Amino acid sequence: MFVALRDIRFARGRFALMGSVVMLITTLVVFLYGLTDGLAREATSAVAGLPADRIVFGAPKGAEPEVSFSGSTVDDGQLAAWRAAPGVASAEPFGVAMTRLTTAGKATSVSAFGASGRLLPPLLSGAAPGTARWPSASGWRARAGSGWATASPSVPRS
């Protein structure tokens, strides 16, 4: 203990440097943890916000079901079986596909959700899906890198 205290007293700069490096590394780890937690929450918020207590994955006959939105399929017979299962109030089909939206020289990655009306989020503004009138294919627009796309300038998004 005496030797350690003597080293600290005679080499204050070295110990201050080591202490500041440890503090900076700790700050970096805490910052990265917060960043990854926020990114993970944003990436899954659309699915986590669904008004459902369970999500069921399926497979065609003879195939193993996989827990993947892109690789899972639930046919009409499986859907009917889930709707008839005891304790199930309702069962709705739901699909997720990752795709790329390209327009006017810009491109962005988007997630396309297919769901029945019961799973749609509440409408905050604009028109409900299926009610918007799109004049032509030129009505499509996208803002690359921002994570949103709209089908028509007449359907506002914030």
Tell me about this structure.
This protein is of the alpha+beta class and 158 residues long. 35% of the residues lie in helices and 16% in strands. The chain has helices spanning 2-10, 12-48, 76-84; strands at residues 94-103, 106-115, 141-143, 148-150. A two-stranded antiparallel ribbon has the order 1-2. Strands 3-4 form a two-stranded antiparallel sheet.
Break the fold down into its secondary structure elements and pairings.
Elements: H1 2-10, H2 12-48, H3 76-84, E1 94-103, E2 106-115, E3 141-143, E4 148-150
Antiparallel strand pairs: 1-2, 3-4
What series of H and E elements makes up the topology? HHHEEEE
Major pleated sheet: 2 strands, antiparallel
- CA-to-CA gap between the ends? 63 Å
- Describe the strand arrangement of the main beta sheet, using strand numbers: 1-2
Could you give the count of β-strands?
Answer: 4
Form type: elongated
What share of the residues lie within helices? 25-40%
Overview features:
single chain; alpha+beta; disordered C terminus; 158 residues
Task: Give the gist of this structure.
Helix content is 35%, strand content 16%.
